[in-house]
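SAMPLE LOG
Freezer: B-3
Tube label: C17
Construct: single chain, 171 aa
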Amino acid sequence: SSVPDMDSDGGDEILIGSEYTNGSSPEEGAAYLFLSATLAADPITTAASADYTFTGHASAYDYFGYVVASGDANADGINDILIGTPLDDTSGTDAGAAYFYDGAELLALPPGTIDMTVPAYGLAIFTGTNPGDNFCASATFYDYDGDGDDDLAIGAPYDSTSYTDAGAVNI
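STRUCTURE (predicted):
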């Protein structure tokens, strides 16, 4: 996913989700943020050279990074990022979760690996309501209410709040 210039250097960043990445568990997933300066220095690169590597729960088959999105949700002029893991089991088997990171807080950190399960540095974690919801199987930032600020829409295709597996979009 292209991330409009987060660090004010005139170049766009790239956020890549890699839901099948094997860490301590199979297919737990990861996501990688490459700043434009890194890409300009070496346009053919690997995950190891990412400025920021995001990891989620070390749970098998959570698919952290299945969804990546960016937008300026808090209207501070710096894009924020969202990383989805639709099979996260925090609030029930395959309920799903979304990890939102404030862009300004992120850029204040030194580059490296960031554990998205540690609530710090501008991190907010949203979870699905019921087992099997697959919360954050899709997500996007857009100004839905016309106030000039990006809003966040998160899909849960199997949400059963209304009817069995009817699905829901949370804004």
